[in-house]
Amino acid sequence: MTTVLYPGSFDPIHNGHVEIVETASRLFDRVVVATLYNPQKHSGLFDLAERSALIEASLDHLDNVSVTSFSSLVVDLAREVKADFIVKGLRAVSDFESELQMAQTNTTISGVDTLFIPSASSHSFLASKLIREIARFSGDITAMVPPAVAEALQHKFADSNEENPT
Ligand code: PNS
Q1: Is residue 156 annotated as a catalytic residue, yes or no?
Q2: Which residues are annotated as a binding site for substrate?
Q3: Which of 36, 114, 119 gets mutated to test ligand 1 (max ligand atoms within 8 A of its CB)?
Q4: Could you tell me the domains of the chain?
């Protein structure tokens, strides 16, 4: 039985992430999706509990996928969930440099290897940062995220506009 760990910020999960999990769930017996606190991304939009709930709602159709969150090294989580590999998605060459650096670092400190799954060209432009920005100004993000995420983004920015009326 092969278990893989798919870590990310997922703030929020979008259709490109869902596609990577769908591919991993076909290729491997068990997929653990983990949303991690990223110290390099100081302010998140959704907290870890909200991100996990949105990931669960978006991956409900996949039986061999579980969701967790973690605030430590990804390799420690990999050990804890008995992952054979870490899985990451690659959208474009621009992702490769930093992903390769993280993969090599993680292998050096733990022996856990990372496998890369290429994103479909139809999803390769998707980025949570841009989706947050579009949603903040009431743009249409429904083609880029699962329905539960679109709804959560609308609520999040409706709430913050009520708190900070212009
Ligand atoms: O979705 P992202 O922002 O590309 O995810 C990056 C993430 C969260 C997977 C990465 O920052 C990470 O692994 N953070 C956990 C801390 C850690 O293990 N750092 C060492 C990485 S070599």
Answers
A1: no
A2: 9, 41, 74, 88
A3: 36
A4: 3-163 (3.40.50.620)
